[in-house]
DNA sequence: ACCTTTCCATGACAGCGGTCATAGTAGCCG
DNA sequence: CGGCTACTATGACCGCTGTCATGGAAAGGT
């Protein structure tokens, strides 16, 4: 993802997100995070006095911001400005990872949600992350001509389908669910923009 | 769910599925499973010599069979035989649980997929579970008049959206994503059955 | 009665988890 | 230099986990 080498603190948050989305929250240890980030273990308690809960929370928040930010970049690169093309780009981010890395990673936010039972704070962080992801998607949809009252529901549908397809794809070890979802959902998304708006938005 | 009290072995598999979907795979201990099932701890090593991996695998398989079996029951109870009604019933199973239990549980299969990194066997069990779930859904769709070649893809879309919505709903602590997905996806599903088949299937 | 199989009980072990306590280093300000 | 703050290092603690070893109870067949 964004492989820039910022300060140790930022690297640790980033590494935490990486490890969480790969192994799950419970299976990622603090020591692993420090090692993966090439950061001193002693820094953990200095930068994250709130312990693992804080680290996980920041990792999830980071993932939410990242996902939201990607939407803007996708919009800029769209060959044709349609909702289905945006969704296809969102899906392609995941299939591309499979092609290059050979493995299908998961979504840190979903991982945090699945074993959030221990910590209410983590659940709230995940909820916030979904919100900061859904917002830009809904905005993008309205930019693409989707009526305002349908933008939020459709954004929810897009993210839900994507998250579910990621899980199924990981289980099967194949991108099929991802590509299927992109193909099947496309027409519905495009049908949401009124005919007089087709081919014309900024 | 199916609260029948069978033998201790079956109870333990059932309890494992319950705990996994609530806490995640890593966070559910073998001792917890035995206690939750009112089963002796010593039975674990007797019934599941394969250890936790075996228990998790059977719990996931059980969940897959359960989900697949539910589809048939949903079909029998449908007020009107449309794909959207089937999907609504699938979604309602989860919103109902929220109404009664006050908490939103997760899906054991999704939970197993998320932290399956440690065990390839678990990943395969999850894949198998998704297959034994998707099969009945696709069959039901064809029974409802969906052309054969679209049944499987649409089943994948339905399950993906449902799984994703479950996760978002858990994070937000609200059923909104579930109801939204059901409402938004309904028209697409019904549109898949050709006009000359509307109102007529067995 | 006796023995075999199935099932249950319990305690021990080794490993790893997060967290705390303590102490050391680097840099900057006076 | 002294003192202060930011950061790093390391080791110890306690709790928990899955697993194993050993031994005890039923049960049922002969």
TrEMBL record, chains A, B:
It comes from the Bacteria. Gene3D superfamilies: Tetracycline Repressor, domain 2. It comes from Streptomyces spiralis. Residues 16-58 form the HTH tetR-type domain. This is TetR family transcriptional regulator. Keywords: DNA-binding, Transcription, Transcription regulation. SUPFAM superfamilies: Homeodomain-like (SSF46689), Tetracyclin repressor-like, C-terminal domain (SSF48498). GO terms for molecular function: DNA binding. Residues 83-183 form the Transcriptional regulator LmrA/YxaF-like C-terminal domain.
